Amino acid sequence: MTTQGNESGTTTALELRHVSKFFGSVIALQDISLSVEPGMVTCVLGDNGAGKSTLIKILSGVYSPSEGEVLLNGEAVTFSSPREALDSGIATVYQDLATIPLMSVWRNFFLGNEPRKGFPPFRYLDRAYAKEVCRTELLDMGIDIRDPEQPVGTLSGGERQAVAIARAVHFGANVLILDEPTSALGVKASGVVLKYVLQARDRGVAVVFITHNPHHAFLVGDRFYLLNRGQMMETFERGAVTREQLVQAMAGGAELEVLEHELESITRQ
Amino acid sequence: MSNSLLVTDERMASISTVTRILRRPEIGALLGAIVIFLMFTAVDTTGIFASLTGLARWSDVAATVGIVAVPVALLMIAGEFDLSAGVMVGSSGLFAGLLISNWHWNMWPAIAATLVFAAAIGFINGWLVMVTGLPSFIVTLAMFFSLRGINLGLTKVITDTVRVADIDEAPGYDLARSVFASEIIEPYDYKVAVIWWIAVTALATWVLTRTQFGNWIYAVGGDKVAARNTGVPVRRTKITLFMCTSMSAALVGVITLTRLRSMQAGQGVGEEFTFIIAAVVGGCLLTGGYGSAIGASIGAAIIGMAFIGIAYAGWNTDWTWLFLGLILFLAVLVNTFIGRRASGARK
């Protein structure tokens, strides 16, 4: 049901066709097909152990699939490293592994894409430019860093996510993969991150939003894939699904209804 | 937005200049070096410790430590150790010495071949660490003992002694001596090795703070996974650093060989920890991701002052090791304290 990704006429940025991944006898993913379009937020929902991490690693070039194909702009590709995926415009922002705490904000922002002056082998970092761009790009996203020289470790969790997202967007990512960007954040900070997700989308980026939170997904998603125990369970399009349906599908229906009632009775007291 | 801009100024002011300076990794070492210099000046019995002649003496000791300690510090910032750096001084000296005295090579091709040999050993270290995933502590410790055995074994087999001698008979020796082992600035007789030390420190500082590769060094040591995720070639960065460490040890090997005109098979053994002490005293974190090249050089200077200062004070030089032990402990204590205070970055 999910193999056809191109019916609306837009070019598919990234597509998986019947992808499986095995680790020895463990089946981490089985027959996964999905497509990701530019200017849209594609949500992959799944609980712990659903195979989200493995899926991210395949999309971002850390693993190659055991079976099936990865298509980038309609062409089959095999990435042998995250660097290759990155060079092809696929940027991944990991939950807590996106930035290096002891390094300054601007060094983190340009890590792996350092702007340089001079001629080889005497090329050196363009520090003034880097700090300026880093500051203005982050201000554009509404994050005001006090000082580009300050270590990233001193920023809050939301700010760190934002630095990582701003970095990916600045370096022209066509596909932006976000691994649980809101899971460690408070309500307000989550809202801020979701705003960056929409800003990235409006710039024409194909955003893949991986989360276990159906409420956050519903707020920004255009298409929803439900992953469970390594298999693709259901697919919804925006407008054809309500928040309740999404939550139910995610949690396995009746079980959650009971829990919801219990919780409601507690909160009413 | 305008709101947050206002807040910016408020928060900027809360970081004082003092904290900014205290944040530098080498500050503890610098303060320590000043204290140690004053102390040895006070207990000096010869009256030359604080003179330019005294500087020439201890800077010579510091240079042979610092030339290797600086790349060792870079490697430590990248999160790895090289315990084979000390014995590599001996191995490379013997390698060059054998080419020259036994196979009658010209001095310069022999030095070039030695650097290639050292780069290869460094590559093997780095490659083994990256491929096996074993701690570099273990891999380079194994390399240390292997080279130590090879140094003695091969030298005995080839020369029937435990040393390689008669280097000064080789063609090209005089020029090599003027480049690696001459004295400069009469009448103090500074060793030219000091120039090499300063050059290595300056180059390493430039690379570390001003280049892309320097950014990668901090990144791979700070968080290997995050670095790889952002596209930093972790394996290449670390292997390059292992090669640099090994080649810097070879430079000291060549300096020692041209200076002494011979090489003992046991040369350099035990030095590996001196390099690590210099780097750690200089503010490098053992866990990686933090430190500086200048700090390692200041650490080397402290070691040089200790060796010469204790002799000039008229004390038995055996006490040097006790002194270095105490300095190491105090330096790490102070660095940790300062680091904790500064990374809080509140005042």
Can you summarize this structure?
By secondary structure, chain A is of the alpha/beta class.
Please describe what this structure looks like.
The complex is a heterodimer of chains A (269) and B (347). Chain A has 269 residues and is an alpha/beta fold. Chain A has nine helices and twelve strands. In chain A, a hairpin with a 2-residue loop joins strand 4 and strand 5. In chain A, helix 5 runs parallel beside helix 6 (187-202). The longest helix of chain A is centred in the last third of the chain and has 16 residues, at 187-202. By secondary structure, chain B is an all-alpha fold. Chain B is globular and about 60 Å long. At the A-B interface, helix 2 and strand 8 of A face helix 1, helix 10 and helix 11 of B.
List keywords for this structure.
heterodimer; A: 269 residues; alpha/beta; 6-stranded mixed β-sheet; 4-stranded antiparallel β-sheet; 9 helices; 25% strand; B: 347 residues; mainly alpha; two-stranded antiparallel sheet; two-stranded antiparallel ribbon; 15 helices; 4 strands; 74% helix; 2% strand; disordered N terminus
Cα distance spanning the termini of chain B: 26 Å
Helical segment count of chain B: 15
- Beta-strand level of the residues of chain B, as a percent range? under 5%
Share of helix of chain A, binned: 25-40%
Mean pLDDT of chain B: 89
The percentage helix of chain B is: over 70%
Question: Ends of chain A: how far apart?
Answer: 45 Å
Biggest β-sheet description of chain A? 6 strands, mixed
Class by helix and strand content of chain A?
alpha/beta
Computed over alpha carbons, the radius of gyration of chain B is 22 Å
